[in-house]
Amino acid sequence: MNYPMRDLSLRACSLAAAALLAACGDxxxxxxxxxxxxxxxxxxSATEPGPTTTDPATTDPATTDTPTSNGPTSGxxxxxxxxxxxxxxxxxxxxxxxxxxxxxxxCPYTPVDGxxxxxxxxxxxxxxxxxxxxxxxxxPDRLFIVEQGGHIxxxxxxxxxxxxxxxxxxxxxxxxxxxxDIGSEQGLLGFAFHPDFPDDPxxxxxxxxxxxxxxxxxxxxxxxxxxxxxxxxxSRRLVYSVGQPAGNHNGGMILFDSTGMLMIGxxxxxxxxxxxxxxxxxxxxxxxxxxxxxxxDGKADSNTACGSCPMVDGFDFTVPPDNPHVGxxxxxxxxxxxxxxxPWRFSIDPATDTMYIADVGQGTxxxxxxxxxxxxxxxxxxxxxxxxxxxxxxTSAPVNGVNKDGMTAPITEYSHNDNGxxxxxxxxxxxxxxxxxxxxxxxxxxxxxxEVFALKWDGNAVAEMxxxxxxxxxxxIGSGYTGYGxxxxxxxxxxxxxxxxxxxxxxxxxxx
Length: 512
What we know:
It contains no helices and 26 strands. With 512 residues, it is an all-beta fold.
């Protein structure tokens, strides 16, 4: 996997004492939505209505705080997609940003020696709660921005503001679509390209539909046969679904692993204290990292994730035969790892195949763990490497070690007692050519404190870099990467009443 880049100079290097008000505590991933937008009966409707995919919007998301410095583009200035509407969307074309010898993107930067300070460079703004940024797999100068309100937008080279809704790559009607404040955890939460995209023209999303009972839906769409910059809304296929007993802790991240299987992050169903019992229930898909083959096996699938969860069906996937619990009737066979509370953003380092899981804690600790098949990360007995609310547990495990109860310790954690921290937002591993010394560094952040942290994990020990930069008080809602290996930090701007003002995309860059 190769991790597109613009050039607006805005350096965010000083900590602002911004009051984030109700945004703090679970990143809008809070525990106050225990019955919001979700079915509470155990016999809910088995079939979720399909989403509305006609884009009803006529106005753009907030576009305040327009960048004031519009510097020269650092990457190629020609757009390799200029003939996109006249070519076969599944055809492979020559991309001038790609080295024809190695297949890797041509470095658009002048490399910086040593270990410079870390800064943030504004790429674009005007987005509605941008939870994820991904590059086109074959065209590294194009970014796909996932908005929680149900839109996926393509940011073309040189663009510095969100494109209009009419230009959406994908639109799906979701819960919380028109929210004017931050806090809801429902909506469009995840997006992934098929591993062979665009030769295989399929993409995948994770969301909660409106109308609907709040269940998680993982859908497949295909590119429009006449326009590779849009999906065909009529191509929708439901790949996977899970009933939700509450409106929070939906997880939402999806990505393909190196074997082509889809990984799905599921929170514990919401509420607080793990009240629905899913984290200790091996048959429940909730509070788990799931691993599925998106290809249907022709057998109808269904699940009931908890006692107060609706039974859901109408989908078809294949269980990978090498999943860790295949053949063990005590487990749902799609379960890959368990004991997570709300794995809002996780990522896989393409260089080492290491999965970094940033799991949102409840009241005290946030953590980053290394994903392993069959691992149990401890929730709701443990929060980080600490006993949760006095529960008996073993805290003697070393970093990434397994305690006597079979629970795996994180590689790092931090407390809410420091600087108003409240909710972790994981990011990605740096592989940009701009600062070679940062290669392999994992970045993550806190929603409330607006701090960005970094560490380096070598498989045995972790080198903590601590807080490396901050956003000047802008809550960090999402992350991503570019086709050149840059790490992306996504923020929202809110006023003193927690009302949304803007959504921004930053690139991690060397400081002055």
